[in-house]
Every structure is written in structure tokens, then in C-alpha cells.
Specification:
Length: about 575
């Protein structure tokens, strides 16, 4: 048992700062918020989500980061290397307060085995995407992206909605736990397998999952019944993905939509092989990691074969960004890439417009601040303006248990539809020309007291111009540049130059070591004029990277977006 098992970290709330600038204070609170037991999947081990995605390398490193942020002058910058604070440099007040590099290895050595060996010696840490960059906001963080994906799937394949469709998946963890709620928000019926009963229980408590069935067959029967009645509800079952899919095949159940979010990106820690209890798995991982990886990889091959068989029988099947297909292919499934990834299938068009995830957090800890920002966005981005505004309204109103109160501006009567985790937060998708508008509105709200403390604005590394990940965000790029990671590096540099509050560059997020490189930025709206200038720059230049990236790769939608926004591209063909 970890000696820190009893240690509970929770971010301070309110307007009292213990750091010398709001940017440093925000970084400290967001690091702590990542490890809040309501937020993190396994806080005692500093694991936030996504297999072993950590917020800091050790508790000693965590303490040193907090101590340093508290003492740093407003013109100093802390350097974090794989979750450990390694230096402080004097910069200037418009520069980031923290620069973070997590899990990076020179490409030739960028293997899981090399990483694992370094990690075992305490020399590295896996930062995932938002774990080591301190902007994870719990399962809601992925909820909207997951909703966008399933809603688009409904529009593309089922005449506009998933109503009446049986959507099957597995993995009810930090991110995967968003699937049942996202599917039901998109109108569908969800059947989800998860091996860990504690994870199912947690999603039930957070109201991301509606019910848990007592057995595999009971779960299948219940989900079929709900789908036939077009009921948007979710059913969880304690089972492996393979058990569920093979049983569906045996019973010849017609599956309409099929995907998976087990942590297949991490064959050692993220995927439970067949016929192994959680306790057996923990022992084998320690005693013979190679044997464990061989077992889990063989199971992933079997898992993908079952997915291909269900696809053959008509299920709209897609990979949900966990690198499952690659694992299966490496283990002999020749046609593992026979179904597409979710980005080329449903998301790329939005990336072309610089659209992607945009999240904000109320440092006050007061949910009413989030309700106030919700209302401000509904007013500033009216449905009548067209574009994606209808989706924005549907999404924000869908986050409320009492949407009428929000529409009426009665913030006291507002209530969330799903539980908050840690500091109250919201997410939505915004593009170039929208993110900066929203950021400046928020800054003004902080200044004039409509929200009671500064807001933190950030995003996932899964974004339009910040990531190179050939099996996920950059799968099947039009010009074949899937593996070119110059773009992710340029994104990090643009955010540093523009004055984000903290900037991160990571390797391996989403799909595992060797398979991706990606950058993140977070910026604080503290109501000051200086923050306003930084917000305008960062929240314009960051999504603009998505337009540059997709114009360069030859996407027409991106060309259109670049024309609309007068984006400056020196060597553009037209
Ligand atoms: P997590 O580690 O918190 O959860 C994974 C879950 O899968 C756990 O609850 C685990 O018990 C369960 N599981 C493991 N093996 C299983 C099996 N054989 N059958 C059924 N359940 C099993 O990870 P997470 O944060 O939920 O992320 C899941 C995956 O999705 C990761 O690979 C992550 O990189 C990827 N991801 C995708 C996106 C996206 O937008 N597509 C975003 C973030 C993460």
C-alpha cells in the first residue's frame, strides 16, 4: 500500500491567493485539482486518467512544485521535466509561468520498453495529455468531444439521431466513462463492458451511467429492450470487452454502433486480459511484465477480430483513439485497420476550421460562476448567427437539469445535469474567431465581478493544430503527413510566444509511447488588461495552427476557413 494512500489533495477555492500571480496560483490549483479524489482515477499514485497518466512524478516532486509556485516572482518561470520541477528562470510577466515537457524521448529510443525502464528508475513520468499538463477536469472534459463524435455518427449514418440504435463499447474509466452519457445525450442506447466494478459504481454515482445489469445476458436483453423502445439510457456490465462482443456474436444480436475505450494504448497497465482477476493481473504485472504484455496483446487481437466480425454484420465501427488497432495489427490481425479512427470519420472537418475542445474552470469553486459563463456564451453566440451555434446551445442547455432557469438568467435556480468533479468546469468546442471572443468575454466578467474569481481557460492536447498522432488525430491526412510532428512543436512555440500561462509538450498521449507528440496551453483570465492582451493572442494563434495545418495538407474546408478569417499563409496556392 502506498504510504500516501491517506493523502487527500484538493485545490483551494476563492479569491485569496497564496502565489504572487494569478497565473502561478492557477497552475498550483489546477495541479491540485487534477489530484482531487473526485477528479483523479487513482490519486494515491498521482494517476489522473488514461492508464498511468500522472500529474507529478512523485509526492516529493508535487510538494516541490507547489512550494516553488508559491515563492516565484511574477516574472519567473518554472521548468517541469516529466513531472519534476527542475529549474526556475527569470523571464517576464507576459511569459508563461510554467513550461512543461513530459515523457519525451528521442525517436529512435521512443519505445514503451525504454520508457518503462526509465520510469521504473524514477527518471520519467507518463503525462498523458491533460494529466501532466494540469488541465484535466474529470470526465466532463471528454464528454463534449465524445458527444460531438456520437452525435456526428447519428447525423452521418442514422438520419440525424442515434435514437433506437444499440451502441456498444467498453472501458468506463476516466475518459471512457463519458461514453454512456455522451451516447444518451446523442439519443442512443448504450451497452458498456467494464472489468472493474468500482469504475462502474463511480460512473453511476456521477450520473454518467444509468444502470448496471447483474449479468452479461441480462445486460444485453435490457439494452435491446431499451433500444427497441428508443430509450436514451445506458447499461453497464461487469465483463471484459471480449466477453461482451463474443456473446453478442453468439446470440446474433444486431449492433448498430461499435467502439472501445479500454486503455489499450498501455498493454502493461491499461488492458485486462481474459480469465484474469484484477488481483492476478496486478501480480503478473509485477512478477512478469513481458508475459502480461504478451497476454494482453493477444487479447487485443481477439478483441479487434470480434469488432471486425460485428462490423461485417452491419455495426458502424470506429476506433476511439486508444491505439487498439495497432496493438492487434502488431499481433497478427492483418486487417486491424479495417475500421476507421474517429477523427477521419467524424472530427476532421471541424479541425479544418480551427475547431476543437475549449474548457474553462472557475477558481472560485462556485458553480454559479460556470452558470454565468454558460449564459454569457448563449447570449454572445446566438443560434440565429448560424455556424455551430445551434450545437453549442444544445450542448450547454443539455448540461443543465433546469435549462429554463439558465435561459431566463435565473442563476440561483440553475442545477447541473451531471455531477461536478473538483472545481466547477465547463467544456465546449470552439474554433478560430470564437475562442478569443469567449476568452475576452470571460476576462470582462472577472473584471466586472459577474464571476467571483479568475477563470482558467485551456484545452485538451487532442486539438486541431497541436498534435501529431498517425493512428488518431492525424490519421489519413490528405497529403500523407500523418507522422510529421513539426506542427505540434510549432504549436507549443506559438503558445509560449503568445503568452499562455503554462505550455506543455508531451509524447505518447492517447495512443502510447512512440505513437504521438502533442502540445497544450492554458491561459488565465484574471480580469486585468494585460491578461486581455494575452488571451486575445493565445486564443487566436492557438486555433489558427489548426487552419495552417489543414490548409497545408490540402483540405478545402480549411481553405474556406482561412479565407473567412483572413489567415496569413505565405505560400498558399491561392
Ligand atoms: P482509464 O485507464 O481511466 O480507463 C480504462 C478502463 O478500461 C478501466 O476502467 C479498465 O478497468 C477498463 N478495462 C481494461 N481492460 C478492459 C477489458 N479487457 N475489458 C473491459 N474493460 C477494460 O483510461 P481512460 O482515461 O478512460 O482512457 C481510455 C482510453 O481512451 C485510453 O487509451 C486513452 O488514451 C483513450 N483516450 C481517447 C480519447 C478520445 O477522445 N478518443 C481521449 C482520451 C483518452
Amino acid at each position: 500500500m502506498s504510504p500516501n494512500i491517506e493523502r487527500v489533495v484538493r485545490a483551494p477555492r476563492g479569491t485569496e491567493r497564496s502565489c504572487q500571480s494569478w497565473a502561478a496560483e492557477a497552475a498550483m490549483r489546477m495541479l491540485m485539482n487534477n489530484l482531487d479524489p473526485e477528479v483523479a482515477e487513482d490519486p494515491a499514485k498521482l494517476v489522473v486518467y488514461g492508464g498511468r497518466g500522472r500529474a507529478a512524478r512523485s509526492w516529493a516532486a508535487f510538494d516541490a512544485i507547489v512550494r516553488t509556485l508559491k515563492r516565484m516572482a511574477p516574472d519567473e518561470t518554472l521548468l517541469v521535466q516529466s513531472g519534476k520541477p527542475v529549474g526556475v528562470v527569470r523571464t517576464h510577466e507576459d511569459a508563461p509561468r510554467v513550461l512543461i515537457a513530459n515523457s519525451n524521448l528521442v525517436p529512435h529510443w521512443a519505445t514503451q520498453a525504454h520508457f518503462d525502464a526509465l520510469e521504473a528508475q524514477g527518471l520519467m513520468m507518463f503525462g498523458q495529455m491533460t494529466a501532466g499538463s494540469w488541465i484535466y477536469i474529470g470526465t466532463q472534459g471528454i464528454l463534449q468531444g465524445t458527444y460531438e463524435t456520437f452525435a456526428e455518427c447519428g447525423r452521418k449514418h442514422f438520419g440525424g439521431t442515434l435514437a433506437g440504435q444499440l451502441c456498444v463499447t467498453a472501458g468506463c474509466g476516466g475518459m471512457g466513462g463519458a461514453q454512456p452519457l455522451a451516447i444518451t445525450l446523442a439519443g442512443g442506447t448504450c451497452l458498456i463492458a467494464e472489468v472493474d466494478p468500482a469504475r462502474l459504481q463511480r460512473r453511476l454515482e456521477d450520473r454518467y451511467l444509468d444502470e448496471v445489469a447483474p449479468s452479461l445476458d441480462a445486460a444485453i436483453d435490457r439494452a435491446r429492450e431499451l433500444a427497441a423502445a428508443k430509450e436514451a439510457r445506458s447499461v453497464g456490465v461487469r465483463a471484459t470487452a471480449i466477453q461482451l462482443l463474443e456473446r453478442l456474436l453468439e446470440r446474433e444480436v444486431k449492433v448498430d454502433v461499435l467502439t472501445d475505450q479500454t486503455s489499450a494504448h498501455d498493454p502493461l497497465e491499461g488492458y485486462l486480459p481474459e480469465e484474469m482477476t484484477l488481483a492476478d493481473a496486478a501480480m503478473l504485472r509485477k512478477s512478469d511484465p513481458d508475459a502480461y504484455v504478451a497476454e494482453s496483446s493477444a487479447c487485443m487481437a481477439r478483441h479487434v477480430r470480434a469488432m471486425l466480425a460485428l462490423q461485417e454484420r452491419g455495426a458502424v465501427t470506429f476506433d476511439y483513439g486508444n491505439n487498439l488497432r495497432q496493438r492487434a495489427k502488431d499481433h497478427g490481425v492483418e486487417n486491424a485497420f479495417g475500421f476507421p479512427g474517429f477523427v477521419p470519420a467524424y472530427i476532421r472537418e471541424q479541425f479544418c476550421l480551427g475547431r476543437g475542445p475549449f474548457r474553462w474552470v472557475a477558481l472560485s469553486g462556485d458553480p454559479k460562476d460556470i452558470f454565468a459563463t454558460d449564459k454569457a456564451l448563449l447570449d454572445a453566440f446566438p443560434v440565429a448567427e448560424g455556424g455551430y451555434n445551434q450545437r453549442l446551445h444544445d450542448w450547454i442547455l443539455g448540461c443543465h437539469a433546469n435549462p429554463e432557469a439558465l435561459l431566463a438568467g435565473d442563476l440561483d435556480a440553475c442545477a447541473p445535469r451531471f455531477g461536478w468533479q473538483g472545481l466547477p468546469a465547463r467544456i465546449c468546442w470552439f474554433g478560430l474567431g470564437e475562442r478569443d471572443r469567449a476568452g475576452l468575454i470571460f476576462n470582462q466578467m472577472v473584471r466586472d465581478g459577474r464571476v467571483s474569481a479568475p477563470l482558467v481557460i485551456g484545452r485538451d492536447h487532442l486539438d486541431c493544430g497541436s498534435v501529431a498522432s498517425p493512428n488518431r488525430e492525424t490519421e489519413g491526412m490528405k497529403d500523407g503527413t500523418d507522422a510529421v510532428s513539426d506542427w505540434a512543436l510549432l504549436n507549443a512555440m506559438v503558445n509560449v510566444a503568445s503568452g499562455a500561462s503554462w505550455v506543455s509538450f508531451h509524447h505518447g498521449g492517447g495512443v502510447g509511447i512512440g505513437f504521438s507528440q502533442h502540445a497544450g496551453q492554458v491561459i488565465v483570465a484574471d480580469g486585468s488588461a494585460a491578461a486581455g492582451h494575452r488571451l486575445a493572442r493565445v486564443l487566436t494563434n492557438d486555433p489558427m495552427m489548426g487552419v495552417f495545418r489543414h490548409v497545408d495538407a490540402g483540405y478545402e474546408t480549411a481553405e474556406g476557413g482561412a479565407d473567412d478569417r483572413a489567415v496569413d499563409i505565405p505560400m498558399r496556392a491561392r
